[in-house]
Amino acid sequence: MLGWVITCHDEQGQALLDQLTASFGPLVQCQVVNFWRGLSTNMLSRMMCDALHHTDSGEGVIFLTDITGAAPYRAAALLSHKHRNCEVITGISYPLLEAMYPLRESLDSATFRDRIVAQGAPLVSSLWHQQQKNPPFVLLNDPYKH
Fold this sequence. Notes:
Blueprint: E1 3-9, H1 12-24, E2 30-35, H2 41-55, E3 61-65, H3 71-80, E4 86-90, H4 94-100, H5 109-120, E5 125-126, H6 127-133
Parallel strand pairs: 1-2, 1-3, 3-4
Antiparallel strand pairs: 4-5
Helix pairs in contact: 2-3
């Protein structure tokens, strides 16, 4: 089963988890990391790292964030590059999470990523999809390349 780390500004992440719990009962392998005003990005990263390790059963983790480019998204992006089968989704909403919740058990992380982005388009995207739009910078005449 894919783990979920819901990370949003202020109490939005907890509100989403509360709604999901009301619909589905207690959620296993799911944690919230709230990004409160005044919380350092270092502490946010540490909290998200803990949540990643608590939710990962070895099948992967989906970071569910609210705003592209904001601190929770950036912290999730950095963590996702260090761990296999991690995806970062942005632009989440309760109806979307409710629809996607049953698929946590049957899809791998990349398929889940593609499905949630397709279902939530155009408001939902992923780190992977953003990277496809903006490929890495390549220096054409790199003097250090032999």
